[in-house]
């Protein structure tokens, strides 16, 4: 846990894991999974700009 972060209450964390809402993966892993399933589907929207799931995954890979 990062310093200064407050952990979720244990009962809520257990419930979220049991329901499949928390999978124990990182945000980059979640983006990669979504990009593999639907690379051209819209992932991010800001004003009039839209990015597909492929875009942030490719950007992360370059970094």
Please tell me about this protein's structure.
With 63 residues, the protein is of the alpha+beta class. It has helices spanning 10-18, 27-37, 54-62, and strands at 42-46, 49-52.
Alpha-carbon Rg, integer: 15 Å
- Contiguous runs where pLDDT drops below 50 for at least 5 residues: none
The percent range for strand residues is: 5-15%
Mean pLDDT rating? 90
Run of helices and strands: HHEEH
The number of strands is: 2
Salient structural properties:
alpha+beta; elongated; about 60 residues; about 15% strand; 2 strands
What's the topology here?
Elements (H helix, E strand, L loop, with lengths): L9 H9 L8 H11 L4 E5 L2 E4 L1 H9 L1
Antiparallel strand pairs: 1-2
């Amino acid at each position: 846990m990062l310093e200064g972060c407050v952990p979720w209450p244990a009962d809520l964390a257990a419930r979220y894991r049991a329901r499949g809402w928390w999978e124990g993966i990182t945000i980059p892993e979640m983006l990669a999974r979504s990009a593999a399933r639907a690379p051209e589907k819209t992932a991010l929207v800001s004003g009039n700009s839209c990015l597909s799931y492929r875009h942030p995954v490719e950007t992360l890979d370059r970094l």
